[in-house]
Every structure is written in structure tokens, then in C-alpha cells.
Amino acid sequence: MPGRLVTVGPVRLMHLSDIHFGREDTFAIAAARSFAERVKPDAILIAGDITQKGRHNEFAAAREWFNGFDVPVIVAPGNHDTPIAHIPARIVRPFARYARYMKGIDAVGRLVELRDGAVRISAVNTARGVQARLNWADGVIDLDDLAEALDLLSQGPADAWRLLICHHPLHEPGVSQVAVETKRGARALDLCAAAHVDAIFTGHIHDAFAHPITTTRRPMVQMGSGTLSMRLRGTGASFCVVQIEDGRLTQDLVAINREGLEIKRTYDSQIAANFDGAGTTAHPVR
Predict the structure, then answer these.
(1) What is the pTM of this model?
(2) Per residue in 71-94, pLDDT tens?
(3) Under 8 Å between Cβ of 43 and 74
(4) Pairing of the two strands 220-224 and 238-245
(5) Can you tell me whether residue 239 is helix, strand or coil?
(6) Which is nearest to 169 in space by CA: 270, 24, 18, 34?
(7) Which domains does the chain have, with CATH numbers?
């Protein structure tokens, strides 16, 4: 990827999702914190489902955990971050609790810059409290909200790295038991490609993946992180580490088990669709 801004050393990002405080795996979250203290990433990106049922005590526990990191924590909401058991609140003010407890670290509608603007991060909310379809937990893209996030990313230098966080994958990655049906997801991918987004950080399916997007512009990848909760779907607890250096973006899967951490390279932008890591089926963008 020629013409990139020169960053001072590698930029490391921890990508977490689906922690589900209330059903969190205490061993897994302790392992993630220990890893962060050792590696010292530039930031920690949280792609939604911070809580299990959107309860006050769950949000309070999550914010306390986030505040314990000595690096920036950047979050976006997920469908479990609405008050699951309180239907009226889910209809009228589905993200009021989220907004209260995540104040100052929520990236929806705002821009976060790292390394003097060499890396630009924003987020869009793909979750809803209720929907007029059978599975209310599926994702939805509001095109106006996406346009706002993409505009924020685009205001900086043309050669800056542009990263977007959202809870739901925009396209089916084909690596999980969970079907992905994000409304207007395909259109969102087209718009992200047109805005020169480099990577989309997602979650929701509880399995990590890296999904290269074929585009005539520049390489783009949709990535998913695993879960740090007890709600496992086929694979164990995990998170991802993304590194940006010298025009190259890589993703490592960090699997957590009682014997230690197992780290596997799952994406490398220099070899993209030819990479033999897990979940790298390319998806074309018009």
C-alpha cells in the first residue's frame, strides 16, 4: 500500500468484542488485561455486546474494567447493550444506559486519532432495541449515520489509515453457526470502499475471522473478534491483535486457554486473499 503516512514504530490495537459482563469469563478477561499490560497496545477497540442484559450493574462493571487500562479504550454498542428485560426502554431509549456508562469512550459519531492522525477511528451503531423482523438482534445500517462516520474518517490526510468499528459484520463471513443478516450491509461495504476505509472491526458471532474485501480502490478487510464470555459458539474465548506498520496491516488471533495463550496469524494485507489463515474468503465490492 504505497503512499501511507509513516508511523513511529508499529501501531498495535487490541480488538475485543462480546465480553458480555454478567456472563463474562473471569479467566479470559484477566488474561486479556495481563496481555494488554505486557504488550501495551496503542488502543483497545471494543466492538459491542459489552453487557449481557444491559443492566446498570453490568455496565458499571464493564466501565470499571475499561478504566483499569492505561491505554485508550474505544467502544461501539451491540444488541445486548440495550435493556433486554425492559421492553419500554428498548423502544424509547434503547441506548440511554450505554451512553451514560460509556461516556467519553463511545466512538459513535466522533473521531479518535492515533499517532498524530496517522490512524483515524470512528464507529457506527448497527444495533437496535427492537425491530420489525423476527430476529431483533440482527444488525441494521443507518446510511446517514454511516455517512457521518465516513465523513469523519475522510477529513484527514488521504494516506491516513481509516478504521471503522461496528458490532455486526456487514457481510456474512462464513465462519460461524450464527447467520449474519445486516440490513443494508452490502451497500455499507460499497460506501466504505468508496471512502477508502482500510479495516472494519466487528463482533457478534463470537468467532474471530478476517474477511478480505475485493475492491478496485485499495485493500479492505472486515475483521471479527471472538468472545471473552461464557457464551461460546464452537471455539473458545479469544481476542485479536491488529498491527499496522510500513503500509502493512496484520491480524493475530489470541486464543485463551488454561495452559496459556495461543497466537496465530490470521490476516496479512500484503498477501490478502491468498492468505491461508482462517476465514479469508474474499468478497467483491462493486
Answers:
(1) 0.91
(2) 999 999 999 999 999 999 999 999
(3) yes
(4) unpaired
(5) strand
(6) 18
(7) 11-284 (3.60.21.10)
